[in-house]
Amino acid sequence: DLHSWRGQTYLEIAGYIRARHYEHTAASFRFTHDTWSGITRECEERFNGRLRVGWHHTHPGYGIFLSGNDLFICRHFFNLPWMFALVVDPRQEQLGFFQWKRGNVTELRGFFFVR
User: What confidence category does residue 18 fall into, taking pLDDT thresholds of 50, 70 and 90?
Assistant: First the structure.
């Protein structure tokens, strides 16, 4: 959900839904129609239709970046100004958030976690 504190808008991530029925190789990931159907159904059941705010995936050993396929997913499914992508490289223990700025998806240089 989107919130405001001292004039700054921030995004609260209340939970996540694991994608199922996707296609992948060692270096790629693709959502299918069944993936989206499952995500939509689970979102409605678990989160009462709360906003989908972004997506995350891993790049084990490849670093923090968005591939061409990742950008396609951002442009077509997570394309509202407040939506994000999170990329995690568990081998290098790195992560990065990407968000929309001026019509392009760019890496965030500052963010923080609140538990």
Answer: confident
